[in-house]
Amino acid sequence: MSIDKDTAARVAKLARIRVAPADLDALAGEFNTILGFIEQLNEVDVAGVEPMVSVTPQRLKRREDVVTEGDQQWRVLSNAPDAREGFFAVPKVVE
Amino acid sequence: MSDLNTLTISEARTRLRQGEVTSRQLTEDCLAAIDAAGALNAYVHHTPDLAMRMAEAADDRLKQGGAPALCGVPLGIKDLFCTRGVDSQAGSRILEGFKPEYESTVTRQLWESGAVMLGKLNMDEFAMGSSNETSVYGNAVNPWKVDDRDLTPGGSSGGSSAAVAADLCLAATGTDTGGSIRQPAAFTGITGLKPTYGRCSRWGIVAFASSLDQAGPMTKDVRDAAILLRAMAGHDPLDSTSADLAVPDFEAALTGDIKGKTIGLPREYRMDGMSDEIDALWSRGREMLEDAGAKVVDVSLPHTKYALPAYYVIAPAEASSNLARYDGVRFGHRAKLDQGDGILELYEKTRAEGFGDEVKRRIMVGTYVLSAGFYDAYYNRARKVRTLIKRNFDDVFAQGVDAILTPATPSAAFGLGEVAGKDPVEMYLNDVFTVTVNLAGLPGISVPTGQDSKGLPLGLQLIGRPWEEGDLLNVAYALEQAAGFVAKPARWW
Question: Is the CB of residue A47 less than 8 Å away from at least one CB of chain B?
Answer without folding.
Answer: no
